[in-house]
Amino acid sequence: MIKTDILIIGAGPTGLFTVFEAGLLKLKCHLIDALPQPGGQCSEIYPKKPIYDIPGFPEVLAGDLVDNLMEQIKSFQPGFTLGERAETIEKLEDNSFVVTTNKGTQHNAPIVAIAGGLGSFEPRKPLLDNISKYEDKGVAYMIKDPEVYRNRKVVIAGGGDSALDWSIFLAEIASEVTLVHRRNEFRGALDSVEKVQNLKNQGKINLITPAEIIGLEGKDKLETVLIRKNKEEEIVLKVDDFIPLFGLSPKLGPIGNWGLEIEKNAIKVDNTLDYQTNIPGIYAIGDVNTYPGKLKLILCGFHEATLMCQSAYQRIYPDKKYVMKYTTVGGVTGFDGSKKEAPKSVVKAID
Q1: Exposure of 334 in the CB half-sphere (CA atoms within 13 A)
Q2: What would the DSSP string read from start to end of 35-58?
Q3: 60 within 8 A of 54, measured Cβ to Cβ
Q4: Rounded CA separation 60/68 (Å)
Q5: Can you tell me the distance from the alpha carbon of 224 to that of 228, in angstroms, rounded to the nearest whole number?
């Protein structure tokens, strides 16, 4: 049985950053993830997608963010159980938990932090009769490597952040980018909407709204898409690729059977203090949780992880008082004895 201080369900960005915050408190972490590598959606679905709202990074690729997080936590030596799904949980007499995976691996910890993102998920597919015929033959529901689309004619459908961000990114790679959305208004960030409009004005993006894709055609692979605009006009476009980005259909999976309070496929937590669930000792952080005012942003998950670790320390060591120190003053000491010192100029300024 694997024993640790904090057992983290989910090795996405929020789960990985939890290791860092726990390490500052000298708490050991072990992570379980159904994917074969750390990083969650950032690694599995869109490693080459640029992210714009990570503090200190005007732009960072999702895969690079994961690499940076892995480097940041290296000295805290976390354990990983990858390619296995957390299946069941049992509370022991000492108030610790045993989590068993679908492959029978058991983990024991006094604290469980669920950082499972959206959970298990499948892409939402448009209702087109023959769309499955063109899957992997011109139709894709996610972008892993944008270089695949270099010098190709691409049609993207959708009105959220993913559709906007990828349209902006591919405008510099593809020979032609067309963005189709059923409304004139978009659901994404206002800055992204403005960038798309500017690219349209520059002739780098074809923007067709309000419109929808109503047909796909091609013999052995996708060759054309049929678009209906304003419910009347029909447009036939020759394309190489069609990428409908309508989001993911998330499911909590087995975690939904753990006795946790669930609301709209997310775990309810107490956000007034520490993001604890209705079961003491079990926390939920990142996109998997819900509370009044919740924002599903990576940076919000980082904040939740920080407060959660402070609470976890108090649960594990109720008789100890931890005094929060700035890492810019004392540096960061890993479990392997390595230490990253704060710059002397910073220490002197604070002293």
Answers
A1: 14
A2: SSSTTTHHHHT-TT-EE--BTTBS
A3: yes
A4: 10
A5: 13
Q: Whole-prediction pTM value? A: 0.67
Question: Residues 214, 215, 221, 223: what is their CA dihedral angle, to the nearest 10 degrees?
Answer: -90
Q: Tokens 């390595």 correspond to what residue?
A: 338
- Two structure tokens written together for 300: 């919000």
- Residues 92, 40: contact at Cβ < 8 Å? no
Burial 216-231 (b: 16+ CB within 10 A, else e): bebeeebebbebbeee
Domains (range + CATH), the chain: 2-121+248-344 (3.50.50.60), 125-244 (3.50.50.60)
pLDDT tens digits along 216-275: 999 999 999 999 999 889 999 999 999 999 876 667 888 989 999 999 889 999 999 899
pLDDT, tens only, 106-151: 999 999 999 987 766 567 889 998 999 999 899 998 887 889 999 9
Cα-to-chain-centroid distance, residue 171: 24
- The neighbour count for residue 7, using CB atoms within 10 Å, is 28
The answer for 159, left when phi > 0, alpha when psi is -120 to 50, beta otherwise, is alpha
In the three-class reduction of DSSP (H, G, I as helix; E, B as strand; rest coil), residue 28 is classed as coil
The identity of residue 261, as a single letter, is E
Q: Is the dihedral of CA 313, 318, 320, 325 positive or negative?
A: positive
Instruction: Give exposure, 13-41, as e/b (b: 16+ Cβ within 10 Å).
Output: bbbbbbbbbbbbbebbbbbbbbbeebbbb
| Residue indicated by tokens 């960030």 | 189
Tens of pLDDT, residues 16-33: 999 999 999 999 999 999
Instruction: Give Cα separations from 239 to 135, 151, 335 (angstroms).
Output: 14, 11, 54
- Phi, then psi, of 31 in degrees rounded to 5: -115, 140
d(CA 50, CA 263): 30
Label residues 290-312 b or e (16+ Cβ within 10 Å = b): bbeeeeeebebbbebbbbbbbbb
